[in-house]
Here is the input.
Amino acid sequence: MNSTPVIVVKDLKKTYDKFEAVKGVSFEVYDKEIFGLLGPNGAGKTTTLEIIETLREKTSGEVSVAGFSIDQHPNEIKKIIGVQLQAAGYYPSLTLTELIDLFAGLYNATVDPMEMLKQVGLEDKHKAKFKELSGGQKQRFSIATTLINQPKIVFLDEPTTGLDPQARRNLWDLIRKIRDNGTTVVITTHYMDEAEQLCDRVAVMEAGKIIALDAPDALIDKLVATGFERKKEVKKANLEDVFIHLTGHEWREG
Amino acid sequence: MMAIARASFRSIMRSPSAVVFTLLFPLIFILVFGFINGGGIRLDVALDGKSDLHNPVFDSIASMQGIHLVPGLTKAEIDHNLQKGDLDAIINIQKRLADNTISYNVDVTTNMASREKGIIIRSMLEHLVDKANLRAAAMERPLVVLSSKEIQVREYKTIDFILPGQLGFSLLSSGVFGTAFVFFNLRQTLVIKRFFATPIRKPFIVMGEAISRLVFALLGAAFLILVGYFAFGFTLIHGFATFATMLFLSALGLIVFMGFGFVVSGIAKSESTIPPLANIVTLPQFLLSGTFFGIENFPEWLQPICKVLPLTYLNNAMRLVAFEGAGLGDILIPLAIISAWGIFIYALAVKFFRWE
Ligand SMILES: Nc1ncnc2c1ncn2[C@@H]1O[C@H](COP(=O)(O)OP(=O)(O)OP(=O)(O)O)[C@@H](O)[C@H]1O
Ligand SMILES: [Mg+2]
Here is the structure.
């Protein structure tokens, strides 16, 4: 795997009033990898991502994205990244097609809205208004908007939260496809199976600090090496396998 | 920026409250006032039941301008209505036959309540009687001839007063309420935050939103003016030039009012505090800026307040332009005062504006 860094974070700190949410983290994200940021609620994942995305002011430290410093060239960065926010909104009364057109306009790009929606399995909803989508569909739409400018780097903050198991798997496929097309993906998630399957490397954050950073396999091996042993799996399948078996593999249109 | 303008415009068009406030309310007021068409006084007159109706005197009374004969009332009703003031006068015409000549006796009863109308009716009748007598006397050279002239003026209709006021009101509510809600919501629903993640620069987000509101409000203004013009004979003295000047004024007014909207959306802590705040801005102007009544009608102590509000000047300027044909050069003072408000309010807006 390529290991040219596209994102370099050095001793990043963020203080809200008096509360230190990010306490000096440093890491690199390599070109064309899927990088996972894991950690419990409130660990500082979103804060870290949004600083890199130039949406929040940092307190101190250095961050560069594709060679651009977030202090000097935030707008150059915005042009080459695609951002899915943990919480974001869209004009509620516009249809998906109109919203895609809107964002295409913001990036000065021309895209085929149907093509974009198809990637997340929402092509049948192209005439629906944003407010009429289900939670998971909103999430999927939000992911579609990150791809409009054919970004070099895509940030996904808990993209699979609220998705059904199939949608989650389909999204994994989409994320792998994005990566295979040469885009770097930074993702946060609370699902360890997801991180294990998807991510080339993961950083584990806790209380504003990175406490581990490596490939999932390597982290697992390290744990196993300490003599850790998981309780034996008794059954050959779990409830998720049942669910998927029962409801099929396609995107749910709902 | 145009992408935001377009999206925001669609969004406005789909929001019922924007359409209602900008178009429907003013339109309803215009309809209501357009149909209460002024045009002189109306004198309600009833004929006493015993009156003789087949005579020239009655015919001339009935054909007099302003006289409205109320038919079909009983004697008791007539008396009662005159007492109440629903009727302005009762007329009783009696034919008399004496020495082979016909003469008429006209009896008029008016009430104290509508004294001025009574006086008018009396003098109208006197005039009528005199004329008849004069003719009967066959006087060839009348002693005194009254010749009166009325200067031609353009008819100032109710609509000429109401429409500019309603237009101002429409701009005010669209500017203040619309802007305040939209920006508050965009912030609250994180639409703006999502925009920040794209290369669009911050001022363009505001400008895009502002342009769409401007386009929407100007379409509304054009619509109101045209409805007034075609349906109610609203006076556009120089035709299209006047129309264009009014739209220019509308744009200026809206931009200033949007400033109020920005301030409100910046100050408001929650969605429910927007309406009261916006009302603090709009209600006084709505009532005191000559939207429905000329500000001359307000008591002395209110006048200074009236004369401070920007909408007063917008309304005045609109009326001057539409009815008296003032060009932009003739309304520099109102323009200057409105612009001064604009500068003041945007200075505040910059202070209070919040992105998140
Ligand atoms: N705007 C803010 N003002 C004050 N404190 C904040 C703000 N945003 C986040 N915090 C605090 O910073 C800490 C880190 O928040 P952050 O959103 O980065 O966590 P996270 O790792 O993304 O959590 P989650 O898994 O729940 O999304 C939290 O304790 C949170 O309370
Ligand atoms: Mg988060």
Observations:
- Residues A 16, 19, 21, 39, 41-47, 86 surround adenosine-5'-triphosphate (ligand 1) (CB under 6 Å).
- The interface with chain B takes residues 53-55, 75, 78-79, 81, 83, 85, 87-94, 98-99, 101-107, 145, 149 of chain A (CB under 8 Å).
- The first strand of chain A starts at residue 5 and ends at 16.
